[in-house]
Structures are given as structure tokens and as C-alpha cells.
Sequence to fold (308 residues):
Amino acid sequence: MKIKRAMALVLAVVMLFSINTTAFAVENIGTSEDIHISSFVDGEGKLNTVYVSSEKVGTAHVDYYIDSILVNTVDVEILGLQETRRISPNSAGNVRIKYTDVETSESKVFTDSVSNYITASTESTAVLPGAELAAAATFTYQGRINYNTVYDLGNTYADSLSIYQQAGETTYEYKTINAEKGTAAALVIGVIAAALTVVCPALKVVAADLLYAAAYAAGTTIVGGIIQGAITKQYYTRTTPYKVKARDNVLSREKIYDAEKYQVALSGGGYSSEYYYEGYLPWDTDVVAYWMFCDFWAYSYPGVRSYT
Fold:
């Protein structure tokens, strides 16, 4: 099963890269990693465009453009993390940073404390009222995966899975963004992105938007890629674990999978990201449908006809 899942992910990455290679080449960004692009207008009315990617948990690469001109790049690695065990970046202590000024071609490599950019607050757990807690403890029907018909050795199979979800207890992990006046925005974005990959790799994409929103909430702005005033702003990561149950509609076989849903937001409002997932959610996606099919059936994957 791990081999089949790995093959599915490789195919998905190959397809993504083949679709986006032209766009990345135009911007002269030489990497095959998943790159997220976000833009905002700075205090001078110039368009700031930020490209963020990550090779592995605890790392980030940032390319920072102003009006389509690359001005600096940043590579960040949180030190002391183990890939097989996700821990709070604050417990790791330090971060290695490589900052390159493109105009002067000068690079600076240094080690700094994570707490100079992000500090942790106490973690609180949301306790649901009685009725809501009881509802969350049950599996609720979500929909159905209908696979294409399979014709195999004279046999015809029209397979489908019914999907159910059970939500766990939502937790909120609070942290504070710290940025001194005069700090390069790309540097802070890189540290935030690297730290967020420790929670969930997909969350790196919110780093630039989170910093810009934090600057605005703190009453300052970004000009020329430089933060114009000190920022101390709290944000949180909201995590909800799920159990996802798939049921074979013909033979009534069942399998239960793990998944998690994440959201990042500024405390007190001003910014809230979309939801990001790990594991077997969203269930109505082709990758998850493929994984589930391989768990239930041994013949060739026929693809999905519909999600209902």
C-alpha cells in the first residue's frame, strides 16, 4: 500500500510541475518544489510578490519581488527538528538563515533564535458543550465515492464507498510574531513559513499573508521589502483531528482513517486562512479516492466517476 500511495503522490507532483513549469520559468525560479505565490501592495503602492517553497519540514525558501524585480532571497532551516517527530519550533531554539541581496549579490549566513521572530503562548483546548460534544463523537454521513466500472476477466464491478466523518476535539496553539523595525519582510516570512511546516507542511502558504496582516494590525506597513515599524502580534493555529470511515457499499466492509484540518488566524481578527488538511481529507479528492480504492480492491484503479 505504501508503494501505491507513493506512486500516486509522485504522479500528482509530476502533473503539477508539468502544468506550472512555464509560469515558474518566466519568473526565473529554478526549483521543482511546490511554490506558493502571494501578492500585496506595499506602503509605496508597489506590488510585492512573494514565492514560498519548502523542501522538508522545518525549512523554507523565499523569493521576494517588488514590481516584478527580484530583490532578495531567503533560505531558512529550524535547527534541532527530527523529521519523524514534530515538535514546537520554540523547543528547537535556533534557526539558520541565509539572506541574499540580489542587487549587490551579497549573501549573509547566520544563526538566530527562533524566539526573535516567533514566541509560543500557552495552548488551550476548546471544550464543546454537551450536545455538540455528543454529536462530534458520532460518525456522520458525508457522501459517496463512485468509481468507474471495472471489466476484469469477464466480470463487471461497479464499486463505491460511503464516507463518514467523526470530529475530535479542536485545539488552539497560540504564538506571537515578533519583528523589529527595519527587518527584511522576506526574512520574517521565511521563519514563519518554516515554523508552520512543523505543524502542517501545507501551512507554509499563509506566511506572507499572515505577516502583512500582522503589520497592518500593528499599525505599520512594509516599504521596499522592509518592515517600517515593530510588530508584536499574536496568531493561532486551529487543529481539528478527524476519523474518516469508508464503507464498501456492496460487501459492507469498513476501514477507518486519520485526518486533520488546520486553519491559521490572527487573534482578534484581521486575517483568517482557508482550511488545510493532512491525511484522508478532503475525502472527495482524487488522491484520497485512489488511496481508499487500493485499500479495498486488488484490481487496477479505474478512476472516479463522481462524488455524490
